[in-house]
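Forwarding these from the shared drive since the link keeps breaking.
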Amino acid sequence: VAGAATTQSTLTAGGKLTVSAGGAEIAGAVELDDDLNVGANLDVSGNAVIDGNLTVAGALQFNTIEVSSTAEFNNGLLVNGGNITASAGGINVSAGATIGTNASVGGNLSVTGNLSLTGQVTGGLTLAAGLTAGGNLTSAGLITATTGFETTGSLKLQNGVTINEISNDTTFATPSSTAVPTEFAVLSYVTQAINTALLSVSGKLLGEIFMRDDFSAPSPGFPAVCVNAATQTIAVANFPELQPYLYAKPLRYDATGANVVDFAVTNYSISSNVLTWTLANTAAVNSLLTALAEDQLVHGSYTDWLTVTNEAVITGVPADTRAITNINASARTVSVAYTAANASGAATGDLRFYLHRIAGLTTSARIFQIAGRGFITAGDAAGEWIGGLRRRDRMQGHWHNFRDNSSTRFQNSSGSSEVAAQPGSYFASLNFFTTSTPTSDGVNGTPRTGPTTDIRGLGVYAYIWARSYIP
């Protein structure tokens, strides 16, 4: 049809119907076995069933579809401009549909395939596949999507405010009237709020170490980690506050005085894919490396032990956290695995040592076992005790005096009983004494002995307060 098409009854066509100019007015139903192409308005007062494609080239070629009952498109629907109205049964599309910026659907729209929408749907919307909306989506009816829904604009329902974000913020620090929180965000926030309330009762701070006389596993009601247990990995998914706290906490030398956390590098060497940093000869470096070497002996190996971090590029070595493979306190060196060509030379930069970091992971941290150990406040004058590092047991170096309470001490070759042991002297025999089991000095009671030198103690379980825990 080159011009307008008008019929007062049902229009049935076994092939394509094309109206290239003018509109088509059909008083009855439309039944087409093939495509319908209309260059202007199409007014249908009855049902429209089109088994082919409905294609509209643009707003100038197509303006409005008005359907008083139901429009069914068993193939694709493409509308670049104009309005689509189904006043009763709605519009059903068995395949994909694209509705452009200037187009809108006035009735219900059901799309079995994907719907790309930059225009508007003012009735209900039902989707069996995904929806991509580049503009605002306005619906006075129900919107159902059996798969994904994505919009770069905003979503506004019949009542309430426009929504443009689904937020996973667990802090709710900036209240928003356009964001809907996820279940994870709500649970995390509520858990934090509950534990903040608990904090006001318990008085505990995040990361605080405290003691109890029995063991308890972490739970939402008891968000704490027992450090008497074996070395543990702390994941941010379970400990949303403790993990970031541990991850960001560096070892400090003389925290209440010089407060050194950056330790200067003077040289580097790469040999057989091992990178060795040499540190400056300072009191802070010497104390730290000695304490690290001691902690490594407590740990028993370099496996799953501490890391070292260069937070900026040093002599071409990129910033990263790497597992320590060797500590040499006397040479002031720290080694890590690093694949690169052999090289060496002077270096300028700083290293940090984070007690709880794990090489290659940013969402997990590590807590080492400290079972069977007493606590000593860090920051001694000798710089041996650095917060968080472990030490072996020991006793103060000493000598033992010798005392002979018998009437005869030693006898030399002349038979004298008055001569004490002297270097180079010759003693024939008689009454040599050696030190033995400790005995009472008559004042302090029977000495207590055992495999360690201990302070007076109470057997307790040590915990770190996590403030929140999500199972």
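-- next protein --
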Amino acid sequence: MPANANLKKLLGQLQSIQKQEITCRNKLTALEIKSLDITTKNTVHPSAIEKRIRQKKWKGLLDTSQQKQRKLLANINSFIELNRTKSLLASQKDNLIKPYLTNLHKPLKKQANWPALKEELIIALKKKNKKTKTINNYINFLESFDYKKSLKLTNQISEKQNERIQQSADRWFAAFAKEYYTNIAASVNLNELPHRTTSQIKANHKQAAKLCSDHWVALKKIFTATPGQQKKQLEGIFSKTDAMIQKLLPCALSLYKQSISNKHSIASIDDISIENGSLIRELLLIIMASKKIAYVLTNPNTKIYNDWVQASKKTTITYKEPKVQLVTIDNLKKQGSKYNNKLIKVKGKITRVKITHKFRKVISYAFITNGKNEIRITLPHIKIDSGGMVLGSYAQVTGKWLQKNKESYDKPSLALDRISYSTLSKTHWPSWVALQLNNIYEANPHSLNIQHSWKPGSNGAINPIKYSLI
């Protein structure tokens, strides 16, 4: 046991930390309740959005989403800072108690200065007019107190509290991702973004691709930086990525306007159009990852933190992509049997999308053309347009070519492939991060192995919001 003077000082310091912890916990609880309120509101949010989309009230949708986005971001930043404070206070408390752990693990009866302290305590309690029975009960409680058991219970309570806070954080992040995505889609639909020339679009895409690559590396290295560096770097990643998305939005609109005059024929610019849609989605994933990691860093003594650290060490930025042959639609029409049962990819423009119900099972059909010929794409159980690939989209689609596909009435079609992020995440850092953010934001809805252009309209890029996928 510490000497009497040291004990008073220690108890005073612990009491001060406890007061700060109570204040911090109350603020966190208030934000947790707010996050539940947001979740409730978001259950009716899609119907409100759907109404505005039908009425094409893009300005109202944009203004609302921007206001909500700003408020959500402010609350997210407060939530992260409060959780950081909570962790720092817990660490300060642990450091104060650390020198006395050996004594704390010993029962009071076995400690050398307990008899003297016991006498002092009894005298002090008598001065406060405490009854003999009350004093004896208090002394018995202290002598029977088991610090190890108490610490175990405290840790269990702390773990449950961390789980609850984690769920609240994810609710904040998911709500923010929804409003941010709505903001993007509404911006493009307003049709007021400045025009971009082909050379400007190419330059912006080159910058965006490099930024994505650089930021994945930076996010991977963040766990080895000092706390001060981590905060600064994450704020930089967020702001730079946000600025790049704003640069890509006029590109999306300009590319779409060029595609209107190019009804079904495929031009070289259409490859850039496909890349544009993928880049915008990936950049938003990086934005959400920066906030998620900022939160994870506030919990250094938890399993979730350790999982992220281990993943950053074990995974790589790049991975060896399986070789999948790019086959022209003309070749599939002429020599379909040559590619039967093979995984291939095709490029073209989506001309039709059809959703049917066969034996109570949803089956999606999409038709893709190169301007001369057309093939069918099939996808069971999922509405293919829910991710935003709709009539008029340019797309690169990967799947298994089947000369006789039973889900296509035994006609030739491409059975759409799905990406296994759980497999990729074992070695690939961006895939691991995408998997962790699955309940917050899916850059690739339903994990469909497709890349497609960003298409304005009430049935296009806004679809993931309409279908509540974000």
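The beta strands are 325-326, 342-358, 361-369, 374-380, 394-405, 411-416, 450-452. The longest helix spans residues 4-55.

- D.
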